[in-house]
From TrEMBL:
It is found in: Cell envelope. PANTHER family: THIOL:DISULFIDE INTERCHANGE PROTEIN DSBE (PTHR42852:SF6). GO terms for cellular component: cell envelope. The keyword Hydrolase does not apply. It comes from the Bacteria. This is Putative thiol, disulfide interchange protein. Its main location: other. Keywords: Cytochrome c-type biogenesis, Disulfide bond, Redox-active center.
Amino acid sequence: MKYLFIFLSLIAVNQCNEVQKETHFIEGNASGVANGMRVYLNELDENGRTQVIDTSIVMEENFYFDQKEKLAGEEIRFITLDGSEGNFVLLVKNDPLKVELRKDTLIKSTVVGSKANDELKTFKERQSVYVSTSRKYQGERVAALKGGDNAKAAAVVSKWTQAENEFKDYAVKTMTDNNSSIIAPMILGEMLQSKFLDAKASRNYYNAFDEHIKNSIMAQRIDTFLKKAESVAVGAKAPDFEGTSPDGKIIKLSDVLGKVTLIDFWASWCGPCRRENPNVVNAYNKYHSKGFNILSVSLDRPNGEKAWKDAIIKDKMDWNHISRLMYFGPLAKLYNVNAIPATFLLDENGVIIATNLRGQQLHNKLEELLGSS
């Protein structure tokens, strides 16, 4: 009877321990992080900014977050740590996750517990390899051009293009294979930012997302971006706008339309813009008499008025100019311009017929539309 009592007591203790053992939504290890340091769980707000939704205190290199409410679908979260730069991205549903936090490089932290996080980790690794390869080829191309070896530069560009296409194909496949995961809009956002996909292709991929993914903040922001891009895509009516000319007059786009009109977003501080200006000047001189007009929109800053006006004279840009002296201000946003130079070619009705034509491409298009000079 004595032994039976001891045996039953042991069972009771074990059962009690099992009940007391806590299971957390996110269990984390933070090697090397001192007791009392705070770890934050963040989500995206409606403006795409991270906001803290929970805080955990590190004790004996461990931390945890409990689930506040059941999630309707997969969502993105960000873990940040006091005293550490950046954040660690993870995808959450309703299943427990285990995180190994690296305090010196949060981005290289790891998470166990879901296939989606494994897919995201693989994508980030492939992306990192591509970025390194791209930088390597860029350096080799510059070196070849400086050395006057155009053939070698062309060979480098060929290899660079192949690497880019391979990464793009992988990214698109990963995205389309995960239409029901938040991974899909994450990858689409990266592809748009890197200009690997245009608005039309991106819209097709977006439309294939599951409905609950389309309702995510990240997907909604992509939808907003695409709507802006579609409003200034080829075939769309160019939005009208106005601005102040160098001599203080108000000029509207609709008042200066020719048979063909080029809207040219540029700035005096933009090296690529200034290097392209002689080509645009040449095109204007050749085709203006046939009905080719230009409206240049400067994105010079508030303190850049003199530099803007001096650049117009120096580069011999003898056509209509406006500026609101704002760095990527409302006019740039209206046309979804986030890098310059950016150009839009319009027909006589103000309909966009081409975008971002450079060098000989611009001359070829003008000859097609207006005839040879």
